[in-house]
Amino acid sequence: MSTSQTAVTQYVDAANGVRFAYRRIGERDGVPLVMHMHYRGNMDLWDPLLVNTLAASRTVIIFDNAGIGRSSGEVPRTFQAWAEDLLCFVEALGLPKFDLLGFSMGGYCVQMAALTAPHLVRKLILSGTGSWIPSADHVAGVVWPREDPSAEALRVLEEAETREQGLKALEFSLFPDNDPGRSAFKQYWERVQERTAEPLSLDLLDRHGSAAQRQLETAMDLFTKSPRTVFDRLGELKMPVLVANGDNDIVIPTSQSWEL
């Protein structure tokens, strides 16, 4: 069975003109799980422990969306366009049905994808993410005023340039600031480097490049008030949805997971 460490990168040409890079992990029949990565990340940064654990009982597909990592094209400026690229990718793979997981910034993309093509998404997993700002000023079940993300966490994620700065940004933003957290990050980073199938790409997206800049532009869409924002449409999702997070997410506050 292929693992996160041994799966070879494959490519598929989609109808939108993008050549998508992806990997299949596990060799089980049934509905596959497609996973979308976080801000400035590519698929090499998925934790092999997570991916291999999931792939023990099913097929997992990790990929780089348009303009990211090994995929061609450019990063769009809206989550709707991100979602359309994702759907072009799964269409190119010929998947009649799939489960969908989005982590952090990827969580916004998969919400939009599920709303755009609910007949394709069997189950949805929203991990370490939130949703758009509601159009109304007060909504039952929403923490008011909304918690702000850690300015320091956002700063280090946005400004990291070198490999060392990228490591510090990932550790600070995604792991607890204590001895167990630092140990967990060290183990994660060691696992990531176990991949042997081909050379690794472990740097965050170039902060000065168009891909990272377009990701930042896309994020501004989250603060647009509109009756058609994704937050106001969440009730349209009829498939099972799992919301998963830690108890102290400093990038996208955990309270936004409660809202979801």
Description:
By secondary structure, this protein is α/β, with parallel strands linked by helices. It has a single domain, classed as Alpha/Beta hydrolase fold, catalytic domain (Rossmann fold). 34% of the residues lie in helices and 14% in strands. The chain has nine helices and seven strands. It has a seven-stranded mixed β-sheet with strand order 1-2-4-3-5-6-7, with helices on both faces. Helix 2 (79-93) crosses helix 3 (105-116) and helix 4 (151-159) packs antiparallel against helix 5. The longest helix has 15 residues, at 79-93. The chain starts with 9 loop residues before the first strand and ends with a helix. It comes from Fonsecaea erecta. This is AB hydrolase-1 domain-containing protein. Residues 41-258 form the AB hydrolase-1 domain. Pfam families: Abhydrolase_1.
| DSSP, total strands | 7
**Strands of the biggest beta sheet: in what spatial order?**
1-2-4-3-5-6-7
Overall outline: globular
Number of helices: 9
Counting structural domains, the number is 1
* Largest sheet: number of strands, sense, barrel closure: 7 strands, mixed
What's the CATH topology label? Rossmann fold
Weakly predicted, low-confidence segments: none
Secondary-structure element order, N to C = EEEHEHEHEHHHHHEH
Mean pLDDT metric: 94
**What is the chains' assembly state?**
single chain
CATH superfamily placement: Alpha/Beta hydrolase fold, catalytic domain
Helical/strand content category: alpha/beta
Indicate the CATH class. Alpha Beta
Using the CA coordinates, give the radius of gyration: 18 Å
Distance between the termini: 35 Å
Proportion of strand residues: 5-15%
Secondary structure: helix percent: 25-40%
**CATH architecture title:** 3-Layer(aba) Sandwich
